[in-house]
Amino acid sequence: MKLTKRQLHKIIREEKEKLLNELSPADRASGLYFELDKRQDAFHALSVLFDGAVADAIEDGVMDEEAVSAVAAGVRQLFEKWITKKTA
């Protein structure tokens, strides 16, 4: 079966629409709008922040699991403040 260019474009549009509808808004933004190198830089910066804070908490005598939990809560709080400021 031969397809015309118009038919092929229509199939591609329909398939793209199906794929985009299956993605959550967060997945869609991350996959379509975040530049890969900037996303990797942000991930690295968060990792450095997180790992350093956990190490500092453990050095202060906080148990490992509690340190991870506390730092995770702190990072979430930091992001919530940042998002609130950006969307206000």
Protein described:
- With 88 residues, the protein is mostly helical.
- It has two domains: 1-33; 35-88, no CATH class.
- 84% of the residues lie in helices and 0% in strands.
- The protein has helices spanning 5-22, 25-32, 36-59, 64-87.
- It starts with a helix and ends with a helix.
- 1% of the residues are buried.
What is the topological layout?
Blueprint lengths: L4 H18 L2 H8 L3 H24 L4 H24 L1
Keywords:
mainly alpha; 2 domains; 4 helices; 88 residues; single chain
Structural domain count = 2
Report the major sheet. none
Return the string of H and E elements. Answer: HHHH
- Please tell me what the overall shape is: elongated
Mean pLDDT: 90
Number of helices: 4
Radius of gyration: 21 Å
Low-pLDDT stretches:
none
Provide a quick synopsis of the model.
With 88 residues, the chain is mostly helical.
